[in-house]
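Whether sequence alone determines local backbone shape is best considered at the level of individual chains. In the encoding step, the backbone of a single protein was reduced to a row of integers, each denoting a local shape. For completeness, the protein is quoted in full, as a sequence line and a line of structure tokens.
***
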Amino acid sequence: MAELIKLVNDFVAERAWQPYHDAKNLSASIAIEAAELMEHFQWLRSDQLDSVGEDAQAMAAIREELADIAAYLLSFANKMGIDVSSALEEKMRKNAVKYPADRFRGRFK
């Protein structure tokens, strides 16, 4: 994770984009890129989803959108002083208590 954070931070620093990378702009960028990812699935029916993975062009575009989300996520976390690894670990522990596997296996409610 540290290597990825450094990669993103170096990219931003080399372009002197730090003034634009505040919490508001970065959080908006995460949402915008997530919406761009959703566009790839917008009009697909559930029975068409498996075929997306077989389309090399679609997968390349999806991969790029996911990378954009990750880059902005890491920039946001760095700006806010959040350790993504520990935040995710803590959240998954909370989720395990909130959604015990024996009660929620195979269902979402």
Observations:
- The chain has a mean pLDDT of 95.
